[in-house]
Design goal:
The protein is built from three helices and six strands. Helix content is 41%, strand content 21%. It is α+β, with helices and mostly antiparallel strands.
């Protein structure tokens, strides 16, 4: 499986899921990515949590300039008018 998919394709999947669901929880999507695209696109971070490869996240950021990372929920969502527009990360 690993030779057939690119980081951009995985990021495009994430962007599609964000559009469809309106909120994309890291814990859910990391398992979907592993199952659909392969384990090379995910890892266990220093806190022991499942995480998405940084190259995938870099491509995802390019595809979703109006998305924010909700740190407390560990999820992405569309930017709202009340968000801090100077940062992609929201508390």
């Amino acid at each position: 499986m690993s030779d057939t998919y690119t980081h951009k394709q995985v990021a495009a999947y994430m962007a599609q899921q964000l559009e469809k669901r309106k909120e994309l929880y890291q814990e859910d999507v990391v398992y979907e990515i592993e199952r659909t695209f392969g384990s090379e696109f995910v890892y266990i971070n220093e806190n022991g949590n499942p995480a998405i490869d940084r190259k995938v996240l870099k491509e995802f950021r390019k595809l979703t300039p109006n998305a924010v990372w909700e740190r407390g929920n560990r999820s992405w969502r569309k930017r709202e008018s009340y968000d801090d527009h100077s940062s992609r990360m929201q508390d």
